[in-house]
Design a protein that fits this description.
mainly alpha; 10 helices
């Protein structure tokens, strides 16, 4: 099969109605997860709730609801479909100078793989089991720290995560997310813009704290400091006015979740 036929097949798949519909489903279930994580974080901010404020906590919440298994498999399907759509989009990306094109292509592929990972992390819960992303993150950090050169690798990972957080904040503040969706007319336009700005900034802050914790784990050679999103949000409570800060970030994550529902509806696919 030559390159032209491969590109044609990829383009047909990307433009197919079923895959587009499932990709929109992926945005919607991603929004649901962020809303659940935001609500769990509010629980920590208000009464010190003990449930993990991350995807594991969100999956546990879904599993405990009526029809939870159906919802979890919907998350799996939606995340895998969205990941596939992004990978195909990266493969088909054209235009611009070569370096810029490959940078954008790499970003699309990275996002696609992230959604695949999220979908895969939901599978154990859909099958009736469970997992702890906080423990998994600490365990992986511990293995890296004990490996030759692992500390430097972990520092690099932390810096990359910090950069991703900064990217989310920048995308929110500059409203670059509007390139991803078709904005409606006023007054809904302002509401969606507000959701997008608050959501992207809040998520960027949360991701940035995760990156800081990863770097701290590497520098102190203490893997217990690398605790993922739940640990990052919990760390905020220890700051001056930490509960208020966590509440604001949690509200922003809920806003991001609502924006994801808007994106499922208005996404440029």
């Amino acid at each position: 099969m030559n390159d032209a036929s491969v590109s044609g097949a990829a383009r047909s798949a990307k433009n197919s109605t079923p895959l587009r519909g499932l990709a929109r489903l992926g945005f919607a279930v991603n929004g649901l997860l962020h809303i659940l994580i935001g609500m769990l974080a509010i629980g920590i901010a208000t009464d010190g709730g003990s449930t993990d404020a991350d995807q594991s906590g969100a999956f546990t919440q879904l599993a405990s609801t009526p029809g939870g298994v159906f919802l979890l498999w919907t998350v799996v399907i939606g995340m895998f479909a969205l990941g596939l759509w992004l990978l195909i989009s990266g493969f088909l990306m054209k235009g611009g100078d070569s370096k810029r094109k490959w940078a954008r292509r790499g970003a699309e592929v990275a996002k696609g793989l992230t959604y695949f990972a999220l979908g895969a992390s939901a599978v154990p819960f859909a099958l009736g089991g469970s997992s702890d992303s906080t423990s998994s993150t600490s365990s992986l950090s511990g293995k890296l720290i004990s490996a030759p050169g692992g500390v430097f690798v972990l520092i690099l990972v932390g810096i990359i995560v910090l950069a991703v957080g900064a990217y989310f904040v920048h995308k929110g503040v500059t409203q670059k997310f509007t390139k991803d969706i078709s904005l409606p007319s006023e007054p809904m336009r302002k509401f969606i813009l507000g959701l997008g700005v608050a959501g992207y900034v809040a998520k960027g802050i949360a991701i940035g704290i995760v990156g800081i914790l990863v770097v701290a784990a590497a520098l102190t050679q203490d893997p217990s400091k690398s605790t993922g999103l739940d640990g990052a949000l919990t760390e905020l409570v220890g700051l001056p006015f930490g509960a208020v800060i966590l509440f604001v970030v949690a509200a922003g994550l809920i806003g991001y979740g609502l924006y994801c529902f808007v994106r499922a509806w208005r996404a440029r696919l």
